[in-house]
Design a protein that fits this description.
The protein has 12 helices and 21 strands. It has about 375 residues and is an alpha/beta fold. Helix 5 packs parallel to helix 6. The longest helix is centred in the middle third of the chain and has 19 residues. The protein is elongated.
Length: about 375
C-alpha cells in the first residue's frame, strides 16, 4: 500500500529527504561560521525529526513552551531552551523538569527574575531576550539598567544561571532589506558581548530568525543560531527568498470533492482547521492560502502553471485552478497544498505521514 492509499481526509505529508537536506544545509552554514546550531522545534515539534537533526550533530534545541519542553525531556538533548518570555505561573513545572533535564529560559524583566531567584530548586539557565528593532518583546538593546538589574537578581540565586543574549528578529519576515536587519543583530549582540564578557566570560550570543539564518552567510562572530521554520520552510519563506518552493518539506494532501470548469475552481476538503488562516496576497489583491502541487507515489511535483487556494472556511477550500490543473484533477482524487505558514499548519494537523507510509509524531498529536 502506498502512502496515497492511506489518505481519505486532509493529511499533512512530510518529505524526509527535503527536511534532512534543509537541516544539513543549515548545519553546514553554522559549522562554516564556527557557530552552534540550536534549532527551534516550534515548527516540527517532533521527536522523530529531532532524531534526524541529531544525525547532523545538533546537541540541543529550542522550544516555545514548557509543554513542548516536557515533550522533549528525556530524549537525549543536552539542553532545552524555552524561547518565550518565561511565564512565572509555570515555575512549579519548571522545577520538576529541571531535576533531570538541563533547561534554560528567556527573561525580559526583573519581576520574573526575582520569582525564579526565590523559587527555583534546581539549576536553570537564562538568556536575556534583546529587542533590536522587532518591537514584539525583549529588553531594548540600549537599556543597560534593566539588563543589569536582571543580572544582579540572578547573582542572588544559587540556581539562576546567566547564559547570554538572544535576539529573534521577527521583522525580517516582512522587511525589504533583510541584510540591514542582520547587520543590526550582529552589531547589537557584539556590543553586548563586549560590554559584559569581562564579568561573564562564558556568555554566548544567539540569533534566531529563519530569514537571516537562511539568506546571510557571514554572522560576524555571533556564537549560536536558532532558526525554526527552516526545517520545513513554506510559501512565506519562499516569497522572502529564504528558500525555493522545492525546499518546502511538507504539503497538505486534500481530497477533491467538486470541480467547476466554468468558474475554473475546485472545491477541496481542506480549510482553516487544516491549513490555519495565514494568507499571502496575489498581485491583483486576491488572497492565497496555499499553492497546489501534484501528488505521486514518490512525493509531489510543482506544476508548470500555478494554482492557489483563494478562499477557505472551516472545512472547505476553493482553488483558483489553471488549465493544467483542471485537466488533471478528478473528483475523488487528491491534491497537495504547500502551506503559507508551515508551523501553523503542522500545529493544526498534529501529525505527519511520510512518503513511505509511516506516521510521524507531533507534540500536539497522539502516539502511533
Amino acid at each position: 500500500m502506498t502512502y496515497l492509499q492511506q489518505i481519505t481526509s486532509p493529511t499533512l505529508l512530510i518529505d524526509e529527504k527535503i527536511c534532512r537536506d534543509n537541516i544539513a544545509r543549515m548545519a553546514t552554514k553554522a559549522k562554516n561560521n564556527s557557530m552552534k546550531l540550536v534549532p527551534h522545534f516550534k515548527t516540527g515539534q517532533s521527536k522523530a525529526i529531532g532524531k534526524w537533526a541529531k544525525d547532523y550533530n545538533v546537541p540541543e534545541i529550542t522550544v516555545s513552551s514548557i509543554k513542548m519542553a516536557e515533550y522533549f525531556c528525556g530524549d537525549g538533548w543536552e539542553t532545552i531552551h524555552i524561547a518565550f518570555p518565561f511565564n512565572p505561573l509555570e515555575i512549579k513545572k519548571l522545577n520538576e523538569l529541571s531535576q533531570n533535564q538541563k533547561i534554560s529560559v528567556q527573561l525580559v524583566n526583573s519581576e520574573v527574575a526575582k520569582m525564579l531567584a526565590n523559587q527555583l530548586r534546581s539549576p536553570v539557565g537564562f538568556f536575556i531576550e534583546i529587542d533590536a528593532g522587532y518591537g514584539r518583546t525583549g529588553v531594548a538593546v540600549s537599556d543597560f539598567g534593566k539588563i543589569e538589574e536582571i543580572l544582579r537578581i540572578s547573582q542572588t540565586s544559587d540556581y539562576l544561571q546567566f547564559r547570554g543574549f538572544y535576539i529573534h528578529a521577527g521583522h525580517s519576515y516582512y522587511a525589504k532589506d533583510v541584510a540591514a536587519i542582520h547587520e543590526q543583530n550582529i552589531a547589537a549582540l557584539n556590543m553586548l558581548k563586549n560590554k559584559y564578557r569581562t564579568e561573564f566570560p562564558d556568555l554566548v550570543t544567539r540569533t534566531g530568525d529563519t530569514p537571516t539564518c537562511s539568506m546571510m552567510d557571514d554572522f560576524g562572530g555571533i556564537d549560536e543560531m536558532g532558526p525554526g521554520n527552516f526545517v520545513f520552510y513554506d510559501l512565506t519563506q519562499a516569497g522572502i527568498g529564504s528558500c525555493t518552493k522545492a525546499d518546502i518539506a511538507v504539503a497538505l494532501a486534500v481530497p477533491v470533492v467538486d470541480i467547476n470548469p466554468e468558474k475554473k475552481t475546485i472545491l477541496i476538503h481542506g480549510g482553516g482547521v487544516h491549513l490555519a488562516k495565514d494568507v499571502l496576497f496575489e498581485p491583483n489583491g486576491e488572497k492565497n492560502f496555499g499553492e497546489v502541487v501534484f501528488l505521486s507515489d514518490e512525493g509531489w511535483e510543482i506544476p508548470k502553471s500555478r494554482s492557489f487556494v483563494k478562499s477557505i472556511s472551516q472545512e472547505h477550500g476553493i482553488i483558483q485552478a489553471s488549465e493544467e490543473l483542471l485537466q488533471k484533477a478528478q473528483v475523488g482524487g487528491l491534491l497537495g497544498i504547500l502551506p503559507v505558514h508551515s508551523c501553523m499548519t503542522a500545529d493544526c494537523m498534529k501529525a505527519y505521514l511520510s512518503l513511505d507510509g509511516q506516521w510521524i509524531d507531533h507534540t500536539e498529536g497522539f502516539s502511533f
